[in-house]
Design goal:
With 268 residues, the protein is α/β, with parallel strands linked by helices. It is built from eight helices and 13 strands. It has one domain: Rossmann fold.
Amino acid sequence: MEHFEKFETNRKTWNSKVAIHAESDFYDLDNFKNGKSSLNKYEVDALGNIAGKNILHLQCHFGQDTLSLQRLGAKCTGVDISDEGIKLAKQLNSELKLDANFVCCNVLNTSENISEKFDIVFTSYGTIGWLPDLKPWAKMISERLKPGGFFYIVEFHPIAWMFDYTVSPPVMKYGYQQKKFIYEEYEGTYAEKNSKMISKEYGWNHSLGEVITSLSEAGLHIEFLNEHDASPYDVFPGLIKNRGGMYELQNKLYPLIFEVKAIKKSTN
């Protein structure tokens, strides 16, 4: 596979993150085990009543959102490139006596590992930046959706990824539609900034135009594209907490979050 070495570097980094993230306040695993949902307002509102729905969760890390969806009555399958992440997801699934399914594979190879079709395909917060090209990603999503089913993504806004956060203050360094990969090497992770682990990561920027066009060309009808000032996560420098408990730029110069819902066209 093209970019294999870059994917392998990312996989090893994510494997190293799993144990650190499982102990972090960011993921709050103890309260999660006691029933706290890991889902945020954006995705809860957009997904609606999912009881009885069959959901494919792409790039699920160690499965908290997958299992939160399962707790709401859905039948869920989570996919992730990290074998350590999937190992912990399966352990949590068993410990919590839930019935989710987890598959370890590169998200672009999902259709090679899963033949089932789903009512909903879902992905969220920091996922598409690990992919060099969204066309095969969108094609896979269309393949895995039932006719009339929908795809939903809530993701950090591409403008936020134009900055280099390894320096302080952050500097706008990367192109909005940059095609070349971005390599970063830094100490710590977004969930545990004081960790001594070295994160080595390859990423790619994707514009909103690329997201929308890729999904549309794969046969999905765009129901909405929303952009939001407020992020549920305090992962960028200089954010302030608003009255709703979300995080915003003080000057609100650009949005931090976007969400897209797209429906697979019926064959009728």
